[in-house]
Design goal:
single chain, L-fuculose-1-phosphate Aldolase, about 220 residues, alpha+beta, binds zinc ion
Length: about 220
């Protein structure tokens, strides 16, 4: 059975590709780093994950590859192309399997690393008291604590994908996670929501770095 990207998915891929290029210009993707994905709206067993090794200034809607949730494998129609989805594909698929997210962004923004260092040795970066927290889905007040799970970096992505599950599932409000010395994952119900959540994270990073607050 050949795989044809639906018009609905293609629209989202175009939207996300545009966002990737904008994010690249803002320092999220040095040296081809970072990866991005969508949950397919029309093929429930598939995520569309960014291709490995692409200069993000030239990233386009055609740089997404269909990957099956269950097997973690690329659709057979694409196997002969010698293209490969991101090394961190497993993390994207796991986030889709345990949340209702439809879009996942992964950035190597320098501020995300510096921010994670403020919480060195902690399981979570706990954020509170900022009005902009209301930019996160479902948040109506600055008077709450948001725990962002933090993990040590590793090249064992399958293991990391297992480790993130309980940390995400135990949080009522989950919007992202931090990898020390590596970057940040952010997700949302749509490309627009993931982008908005990323903007909140960027603001949090700047605020804490400028005030040098850590716990
Ligand atoms: Zn990465």
């Amino acid at each position: 059975m050949s795989f044809i990207i639906s018009a609905q998915d293609y629209e989202e891929m175009k939207k996300l590709a545009t966002l990737v290029r904008v994010m690249n210009s803002l320092g999220h993707n040095p040296a081809t780093s970072g990866n991005y994905s969508l949950r397919s709206k029309t093929s429930p067993d598939i995520a569309l994950v960014s291709e490995s090794g692409i200069d993000k200034s030239r990233f386009s809607e055609d740089n997404f590859l269909p990957i099956f949730f269950e097997t973690r494998k690329m659709h057979p129609d694409y196997l002969k192309s010698n293209r490969k989805s991101s090394d961190e594909t497993d993390i994207h698929l796991t986030i889709y399997q345990i949340t209702k997210a439809n879009c996942v962004l992964h950035s190597h923004l320098l501020d995300s690393l510096l921010f994670a260092d403020l919480f060195y040795g902690k399981l979570y970066a706990t954020i509170e008291g900022l009005e902009l927290l209301k930019g996160f889905k479902g948040v109506k007040t600055h008077e709450l604590k948001i725990n962002i799970p933090c993990f040590d970096n590793t090249q064992d992505i399958a293991l990391l994908a297992e480790q993130i599950k309980p940390a995400i599932l135990e949080q009522k409000n989950n919007y992202g996670l931090l990898l020390r010395g590596h970057g940040v994952y952010v997700w949302g119900d749509s490309v627009e929501e993931a982008k908005r959540h990323l903007e909140v994270f960027e603001y949090i990073f700047k605020y804490y770095l400028n005030s040098r607050r850590g716990y």
